[in-house]
Amino acid sequence: MKYLITGISGFVGAHIVRQLLPQGHTVIGVDLAMPVGLPKAVVSYQMSLMDAVALKDVIVRVRPDRIIHLASASSVGYSWEKPVDCFVNNTNIFLNLVEAVRSSDIKCRILSVGSSEEYGPVAPTDVPLKEERPSDPMSPYAVARVAQEHLSKVYARGYGLDIVCTRSFNHLGAGQTDRFVISSFVRQAVEVSKGLRPKITCGSLDIVRDFVDVRDVVRAYEMVLDKGISGEIYNVCSGRGVSLREVLEVICRKVGIPFEFTQDAHLIRPIDNPVIVGSNEKLMKLGFALSYDLEHAIDDLVSWWKTKI
Amino acid sequence: MKYLITGISGFVGAHIVRQLLPQGHTVIGVDLAMPVGLPKAVVSYQMSLMDAVALKDVIVRVRPDRIIHLASASSVGYSWEKPVDCFVNNTNIFLNLVEAVRSSDIKCRILSVGSSEEYGPVAPTDVPLKEERPSDPMSPYAVARVAQEHLSKVYARGYGLDIVCTRSFNHLGAGQTDRFVISSFVRQAVEVSKGLRPKITCGSLDIVRDFVDVRDVVRAYEMVLDKGISGEIYNVCSGRGVSLREVLEVICRKVGIPFEFTQDAHLIRPIDNPVIVGSNEKLMKLGFALSYDLEHAIDDLVSWWKTKI
């Protein structure tokens, strides 16, 4: 099958390539950044998805069977600093993508990747979060993701496009930047183990999140593309809540350093959900099963950071 | 007080001006189109709200106390034909507006006008629709309106902007284009009365809507600006459902022609809500009361079309 991957140069893009190529699929990528380190079999176009004409050109030339839309300005923090940039680089690029498909005669299935941030403020009684719970976005990023999901439904129901959606929870794995909390912990732990810093610095360790190994995330994406129903939304999550304290303990054990840390008040967000855990029941009903637990995921991240430091 | 009105050249804009000027307020307008027939006291800027720099220049120069954001590509039908245009000319222009206010030091209250379309498919048990019912947008236009409302909440809660929102139901009154159903009925009825056409042509007359006189709409907007709570949403509606059949009967009686019509299958939308009626309880709690009933509204529209034909 022929896959077009937007945002192929990112963390998840690399794992998608590793998932799809060995199965004999053709993989074509587009990204703002020139992809580094991808196998030669992957053809990539360097372009902005804000350029609707160029995007349509690529889609019409490639004629993909499937599009996995990973491209996104995906940081909540950045979205507060640059709300317009965030909105345009999420919702408007998605709109350009679906419009390019609609206005050509290409029959392809599109995966629209969303976020658990769409749920907004989560009460303890709301977890595990199910897909039917109304969204209540509380950051510019979350607003953009909800709009993308609403557009997916409208393009699926109204124009007959074949679009399946996810709400993806926190993922982790090799290649993840240390702007994300777990990758930052692992990096710091490896640095402590090499005597490069005295202790790990962190924010609140009490918050509970639902972490998925990125290798399971890309397997789930393929499963949703294989078996998902057009216009439907699927949580991609482990279904299990883990506190950051628990995660940090595992990391320290894996790296072989004492469980010690310094808390920095600046790293504690003024408003944050104490607990976010998703239900993956709907995904499981498609036939999906997780292959990697938290220990596996952290092993992979530790090995990767060890090669970097 | 100093008001800035976006989309001042439109149907509602003219009524806002008529509402505000006699109270001694200063009214400044911006619009894509050059306003025609506005009183000389109203200064207008002709510009696109997509031009973020020009928009901010105007806002900084004017330093309004209140902004009423009427500018919108507000046709559901058009949004299906030109989804990207519709989205950009609703959500992105609103984003430019709130970003201009956020990035300057201007303290002003903004009225974000939304639509009953945001509710989406409405079951008979859902009416009268209350503001807390989850939105489920089913057209590109409705998606754009929901995104605008979500952005309003995020800018209000996250950046402390003072924004109040409405979900406005069908309005009618003098100056309304015949792209809207009731204005089209009145125009046709006046034409029948003058022997310019044999009969009124219409689609389904069974659908039930909640109609508000535009003069009450602009009074409600002022009330929401006076007393509404920042970040909150207020339905602007009559709270009463009326079938198009009932409306057409009133129109024929007012114009003095027999109640006769031809139904055109092309005018019947394939998917449409049979009944949309809102609850105006929240608006009433601010101290609002309707001043014009359907008969008044139709009188006004009939008089206006009589001057045109």
Describe the structure.
The structure is a homodimer of 309-residue chains. Chain A has 309 residues and is α/β, with parallel strands linked by helices. Chain A folds into 2 domains: 2-171 and 212-236, 3-Layer(aba) Sandwich (Rossmann fold); 174-209 and 240-308, UDP-galactose 4-epimerase, domain 1 (Alpha-Beta Complex). Chain A is built from 10 helices and 13 strands. Chain A has helices at residues 11-20, 52-62, 76-81, 83-102, 140-159, 181-193, 214-227, 244-255, 281-285, 294-308, and strands at 2-6, 26-31, 43-46, 66-69, 109-115, 162-168, 171-172, 200-202, 208-209, 212-213, 233-236, 242-243, 261-263. In chain A, helix 1 links the parallel strand 1 and strand 2 (26-31). The first copy, chain A, starts with a strand and ends with a helix. At the A-B interface, helix 4 and helix 5 of A face helix 4 and helix 5 of B.
Question: What's the layout of helices and strands?
Answer:
The structure is a homodimer of 309-residue chains.
Chain A lengths: L1 E5 L4 H10 L5 E6 L11 E4 L5 H11 L3 E4 L6 H6 L1 H20 L6 E7 L24 H20 L2 E7 L2 E2 L8 H13 L6 E3 L5 E2 L2 E2 H14 L5 E4 L5 E2 H12 L5 E3 L17 H5 L8 H15 L1
Parallel strand pairs in A: 1-2, 1-4, 2-3, 4-5, 5-6, 6-11, 7-10, 8-13
Antiparallel strand pairs in A: 9-12
Helix pairs in contact in A: 1-7, 2-4, 4-5, 6-8, 6-10, 8-10
Structural class of chain A: alpha/beta
Low-confidence sequence ranges of chain A = none
Overall shape of chain A: globular
Mean pLDDT of chain A: 95
The main pleated sheet of chain A reads as: 7 strands, parallel
| Greatest interface and its participating residue counts | A-B, 27 and 27 residues
Give the domain tally of chain A: 2
What is the CATH T-level topology of the largest domain in chain A?
A: Rossmann fold
